[in-house]
Amino acid sequence: MMAHIALFHSILGLRPAERLAAERLRAAGHQVITPDLFGGATATTLDEGFQLLDRVGWATVVHRARQALRDMPEETVLAGVSMGTGVVTELWPERTAAAGVLLLHATAELPASVPPGTRVQLHAAEPDDFVPPENVAALRRAAREQGVELEIFRYPGAGHFYIDREGEDHDPEAAELTWRRVLDFLDHGLTSRGTAP
């Protein structure tokens, strides 16, 4: 089953981590866009990333993401990498027909209007300062109350951005397991409105 996916990058900008992820998803038969929310700029450290975000501005980031989705099907899967999950939080209330949501390295807030049965996956290191237990508990509670089908996968001992081959947090085993689970989710775990023959 083929899915349309919008993959939003981390605070480091659109880098090989997201491009390689998109290539892997495309190789599995999915259509993927990777919007460049920083206009070509990238960072090598979190501090540089936050400075870059300050220069670009959150409103511009969200506007660029919204524009990138303009011609995408309503059922497009929303996927965020770290900061990208914040972008998902912003756009999800406008895209409640999304066939599924993928949260990598950070949580997101469920919109009140999300339809019951929507599938969501969270993948995060354990422990991770960017994924505090209270945020995970809040997500789990909201999913239960709203009838969202939430799967949470934690990766003990991995660093925050463990899928990034170029980063010091890289954990090959955790990254491989994450992508196997993501592909299974895309192949078998989406709501029926989001799949195509």
Automatic annotation (TrEMBL):
Alphabetical keyword list: Hydrolase
Annotated Gene3D superfamilies: alpha/beta hydrolase
Domain Dienelactone hydrolase: start-end pairs: 5-188
InterPro entries: AB_hydrolase_fold, Dienelactn_hydro, Dienelactone_hydrolase-like
Protein name from the UniProt record: Dienelactone hydrolase
GO molecular function: hydrolase activity
One Pfam family cited in the UniProt record for this chain: DLH
SUPFAM superfamilies the UniProt entry points to: alpha/beta-Hydrolases
